[in-house]
Amino acid sequence: xxxxxxxxxxxxxxxxxxxxxxxxxxxLILARHFFESADWDTYGLLPTPWGVRLFERQRVIRALDRxxxxxxxxxxxxxxxxxxxxxxxxxxxxxGAAPRSGKFTALDKVVRMGSMLTATGIVPGRSARxxxxxxxxxxxxxxxxLALPFLFRxxxxxxxxxxxFMLHDVIPIEFPDLVxxxxxxxxxxxxxxxxxxxxxxxxxxxxxxxSVAAELAQHGRADIAMLSAMxxxxxxxxxxxxxxxxxxxxxxxxxxxxxETRKNLLLLLEAWKLLEARLGANTPQLVLAGSVHAGGRxxxxxxxxxxxxxxxxxxxxxxxxASIGTLILGARALLMxxxxxxxxxxxxxxxxxxxxxxxxxIPAHREVAGGSAALLPTDxxxxxxxxxxxxxxxxxxxxxxxxxVSAARREFVERIEAFLESTx
Length: 424
Known about the structure:
Layout: E1 4-7, H1 9-12, H2 22-37, E2 42-48, E3 51-55, H3 57-70, H4 81-90, H5 106-120, E4 126-127, H6 128-131, E5 137-140, E6 162-166, H7 171-174, H8 181-197, E7 200-203, H9 206-217, E8 225-228, E9 252-256, H10 266-279, E10 285-289, H11 296-305, E11 313-316, H12 321-330, E12 334-336, H13 345-352, E13 357-360, H14 363-369, E14 374-376, H15 381-389, H16 404-423
Parallel strand pairs: 1-2, 1-5, 5-6, 6-7, 7-8, 9-10, 10-11, 12-13, 13-14
Antiparallel strand pairs: 2-3, 3-4
Helix pairs in contact: 2-3, 3-5, 10-15
């Protein structure tokens, strides 16, 4: 096979983020595959002050190893301070301030990037424009660099390179009222970059495919090859998490994802007000696990301003994959009331661990859940309160059979490989 250029921009700047989002984990899965086990002769592609450069396989693997350490992706749940904090809150113990409740400072970012550079060493790399062989494939899963079109001008001088990009969704274009104005601006730039340079596009659902295809058609690319591939789970889900016995009798529900306007979390605030009025001291607890994004601070303030609801609500960020798995295992159900999604990775995570799911009735959730979730309107907190109240404590969970998660991941990377080959 021809050498493959794998864009590592999103992963390289990973230390600048406190914790990975779902797509960061997917990018990491594919990077691990192509740099460690695939037959492709893979090079890491990264924009630098000296132009777009290629870096050899072992250097990239060291960066991936260090990134997982920085993000605590390999940490055991019970060694995770964030998990210990939320566990104590659920048990009614004194927990103090959340471990990551303080501001993620510029010094934190400098230290973490320094750690990454120490692991990889500082080398100039080779010019991607000059070094890539004829008709080489170029894969960009991370998406973020697509918002900066000048980073792709080198492809104008290498039109033979077969660029394949992932566009996760076009929500900022379809629903500009749910995101900051800058997100809509940059997402439009991503679509334009894709339309100009990509020979193939990867999406996660048929719903996302239809939306992305419609936007690309507006830019004259109705003919572009597209692959819809269900996103896989991190290898931390290969072996089912071990439930925490101390949480076995605690009635709590869990939300996993960014704290932002699009997630429709204030619906849950209204639902919990109804639950508290109905159940009083028996009101179940609610854990919202995710980083604060656009509108998130205001959402948190509204929850905490409600004296009736605040004692039952816990915000936490910085959880490792193992910690998220353990929390999902103990939850009565995973809640996902989003107004718009391109996929919905937490639904897949919950299903893999046998945890019930209550989600909003939107196209992506209907496709991803496959009929196994309770799907409710996005504007009926009364129905959400009823569903929460009627969800029983499950004595035992039925996680996915051993090997099923890793098999799905293998199928995903094989489909990506086949799609790359088809575009050459």
